[in-house]
Amino acid sequence: MKVEGSEINLRGNEQDLESALLRYVCCREYCEIIIVDGKTNRGKVWLPNLDGGSAGFEEIEDMDADSMEYFKKHATPNNLEALLEKTRMSRIREELAKSDSYEVFFEEKTASSATQYYRIEFSYIDREQELICVSSTNITAHVTKTREQQELVKHSYELGEAAQNAKNNFFANMSHEIRTPLNAIVGMAEIAKMDVHNPKKIMECMDIMLSACQNLTNVVSNILDTSSMQSGSVKIVPNPTDIHQVLEKVEKEFVEGFKKPNQTFKIEKDLKHSKFMLDATRAIRVAMNLLTNAANFTAGNGEITLRVTELPGKTSRKGFLKIEIIDNGKGISEEDIQHVFEPFYRDHDTAENYLSGTGLGLSVVKSIVDAKGATIEITSKPHEGTTVTIVDPVEYAEEKKKVAVEEEDQALSGKRVLLVEDQPINMLVAKRMLERFGAQVDTAEHGRFAVEQFMNQPENTYALIFMDIQMPIMDGYEATRQIRSSGRADAETVKIIAMTANVLPEDIESAKESGMDAHIGKPILTDELKTLIVSVLD
Amino acid sequence: MSAFLEKFAAYGADVDGVMDRFMEDEELLMVCLDQFVADDEVEQLKEQMGKQDYEQAFEVAHALKGVSGNLGLTPLFDATCVLVESLRHKVYDHVEEELSEVVKQREEFVKAYEQMK
């Protein structure tokens, strides 16, 4: 955004202004947004539908005069004087000097005499240049709905009808959480479309869209997990997992998508092992839900720590991971701690001040923790902070991995495979890999030799055929078609795997169409090949 | 890591990937690299490109992509991928520059490999 002298260049590039504004509010829901030059009290209001039907800004000459006119017309008269005092620009500047944002609530009497409650948030987009964002949100529906839903869900549980009612409420509750990031995605896509020839602008838009997508992914994942929980099908699938990689992923997702800009985040590790049998997806979900909560309930300059400590177990193969998420945020009251794991529960402060959140995160965390056989404990002091502690019994992965390799080696032990590859070096590499898995490997240098080799052997000689695609004389597609249509008893049952540098989706599709069972891209990785062999032979 | 692998990594090779494929068999890797240098598929590629026989050039480039990938020669593999995709999609506007990059990357590898051994 361009600033000239003491005045915002409000007549400058509208898209820059729009982009900055939308970036700022992309994670919020709003019904009106104004951007104000705190030095001159001039502003612009963002209108999704101007007279011509397109979105854009409308000028405001003097915010104080405009506010007065607006509130006299819309706000209920009983607290008008206080409201006008609270929303004067001089007062807003004073409040913003003390904290990052400043909120004012007011009531509006509508034509139907129903009272609507609004929250106006003032915050700096750029403190140095005194650019202030003013966003107003209608909180009536959300507060009422949230309370009604909590009551309904609680009652439903008592009646043993939780599943059906929770589902109904769940969809109602989700709409806001899904709409907010979607608004950002749609807004940014529109801006990018208007400026298709400006790569820098498009990259900015894409960054915001990716951040919004991450928020949306989180919400959808919680929805899916909740759905699994309600059907009682939370399954933990442990695999050998490098915990350092998991923590790196958590850090990246959290810092890029959820941490507030001035919050401090650190990871502390005290680990003797690197690999554990973990369900990485579930572990990341648990950490992200807890960290997102910590970010939401910690001040803009607060501190959040993720501490992971390995504790010894009774045997050399098992131990415990103690995971602590520590923040110095506003804390949780004792009363709320009793309920935080209930689906849709949001503490009183959250519901009344309309902080974002689905109310699902902690219930998802609890379900996963229970399914894993771990424990979770929350300790908190209001205004001092919260610590969530999970103690998870874990198995070290190294020994397990060794067993797994042996099992996979046995999968090809005593089996005969045909390797079709025209490039000698590639042939040598693949042959060595397959021999390592215990296979007896026959080779063919092109498709025609492969068909001849297959036909010359007794039926069911080959457990697997690894087929290159691009080869002289006869390619892999044609060779596969000829094998499949050869009329032998094993013509349709022998497993054929495409092993090729053609890795585009259409190449994989072509391989399937010609009758191949699976596809692996070059360069081949041992683990990938092992997994594929096991799955194809299963 | 051996002195050879350190130099191989410094050249830009995907040492982890290639050693995984070669089951940590460094000697076999060197046999294959010697073979790769002797085969010189890039010469064939230059020849086909010179004749503007792009279909045949695609076949050769595709093979080069496979083998350079398997040998972990990442800089050459990356350059070859670009040329393969142009030839695959029959977009010939920049194939000469792309071929030059492949030739350059192969020369750089051969030069580096001589110093690694």
The CATH homologous superfamily of the largest domain in chain A corresponds to Histidine kinase-like ATPase, C-terminal domain
The count of strands of chain A amounts to 20
The level-1 CATH class of chain B:
Mainly Alpha
Low-confidence stretches of chain A: 1-12, 351-356, 399-405
- Number of extended strands of chain B: 0
Instruction: Please identify the oligomeric state.
Output: heterodimer
Q: How would you classify the helix and strand content of chain B by structural class?
A: mainly alpha
Largest sheet of chain B: none
CATH architecture label name of chain B: Up-down Bundle
The share of residues in extended strands of chain B comes to: under 5%
CATH class categorisation of the largest domain in chain A:
Alpha Beta
CATH topology of chain B: the name is Four Helix Bundle (Hemerythrin (Met), subunit A)
- Per CATH, the architecture of the largest domain in chain A is 2-Layer Sandwich
Total of domains of chain B: 1
Number of domains of chain A: 4
Please tally the helical runs of chain B, counting DSSP H or I stretches of 4 or more residues. 7
Strand order of the largest sheet of chain A: 5-4-3-8-7-6
User: How many helices of chain A?
Assistant: 18
Cα end-to-end separation of chain A: 59 Å
> Could you name the CATH topology of the largest domain in chain A?
Heat Shock Protein 90
The percent of residues in helical segments of chain B reads over 70%
